[in-house]
Specification:
By secondary structure, the chain is α/β, with parallel strands linked by helices. Helices cover 30% and strands 16% of the residues. Helix 3 packs across helix 5 and helix 5 packs across helix 6. The structure holds glutamic acid. Glutamic acid binds next to loops.
């Protein structure tokens, strides 16, 4: 049996709130109960939004809560560096493999449409289903303007200057029938069997941005594989990203980890917590005098309400 290796992958784009904390606590428990290793990876690729103060705050707040990690930017380890901004060469090598394999193509569509690519595309499936809308802040379905008619190896010495998109597979034979897009299937340890259809649930997604920043989907896969992560524990808002990432695992010849997506925590109005929900940031709760045990008691239900905000 290989050693369990889990990870916490916070982005330093704001203060961590109770929802993040609950998911990270779960990741911590899984690693601890398996007698394994927990890695903390600083996902600071979003150059527009990442800040060193937030990076320091997230380590401090997680440690205050009682979470322990054995590898990370502050403690070192054999799989570093643990800041994504220091791992460019690895992402670049993966880009080259995807290019040489004909998996990706350059896209010159407008910057505005592509603005979200460096951050993880958090979506809220339950809410979308309730409101019958498409994922609000998920990466928009790419209409295909720059997609070549058939897969081909694009000529380029370096990725910068255009966006690079992964060409999702289509026209696969599934159970003896031709489907519109490949069916991506995985078993989630908490949520059971999940099925997504490439081309219906997501389109050709960005793996590299024109400003020479690898997109979340690529960086995450490269790092989880390189750091030999055996189980990814993260929020249910990234379920669709898991489907995309499985396609990248296959293209890059990496073995995927196991998956555990955690339900999202909501406020009293049923809204998903956001980094802007300041009152529920770990920092604010700590400053109000709550103890780590009191904070942990708050997330036992899937909704957190008024009283919690006023201690
Ligand atoms: N840095 C990502 C985020 O904050 C983490 C995504 C992941 O766990 O894969 O959403």
């Amino acid at each position: 049996m290989s050693v369990y290796r889990g990870r916490l992958a916070p982005s330093p784009t704001g203060l961590l709130h109770l929802g993040h904390a609950r998911t990270f606590w779960k990741a911590y428990e899984r690693a601890r109960d398996a007698g394994g290793i927990l890695v903390l990876r600083d996902e600071d690729l979003d150059t527009q939004r990442a800040r060193a103060e937030y990076a320091a705050a997230m380590l401090e707040d997680l440690r205050w809560l009682g979470i322990e990690w054995q590898e990370g930017p502050d403690v070192g380890g054999g799989f570093g560096p643990y800041r994504q901004s220091e791992r460019y060469a690895l992402y670049r090598a993966a880009w080259e493999r995807l290019r040489a394999g004909g998996w990706i193509y350059p896209c010159t569509c407008s910057r505005r449409e592509l603005a979200t690519a460096a951050s993880a595309p958090h979506e809220d499936q339950e809410e979308n289903a309730r409101n019958e809308i498409g994922a609000e802040d998920d990466e928009p379905m790419y209409p295909g303007r720059c997609r070549p008619a058939r897969a081909a190896v694009a000529e380029a010495h370096e990725p910068a200057g255009v966006n690079w998109r992964f060409r999702i597979p289509e026209d696969r034979l599934v159970d003896g029938r031709v489907t519109d897009g490949e069916v991506v299937h995985f078993d989630d340890s908490g949520m059971g069997a999940r099925t997504y259809v490439a081309g219906r649930d997501f389109g050709d997604f960005v793996v590299w941005r024109r400003d020479d920043v690898p997109a979340y989907q690529l960086a995450c896969v490269v790092d989880d594989a390189a750091m030999q992560i055996t189980e990814v524990v993260r929020g249910a808002d990234l379920l669709k990203s898991t489907a995309r990432q499985l396609l990248l695992y296959r293209a890059l010849g990496f073995t995927p980890p196991l998956w555990l997506h955690c339900p999202l925590l909501r406020d009293a109005q049923g809204q998903r917590l956001a980094k802007r929900t300041d009152a529920l940031s770990l920092r604010a709760m700590r400053e109000r005098g709550l103890t780590p045990a009191e904070v942990r008691a708050m997330w036992l239900s899937d909704k957190v309400g008024g009283a919690a905000l006023h201690k």
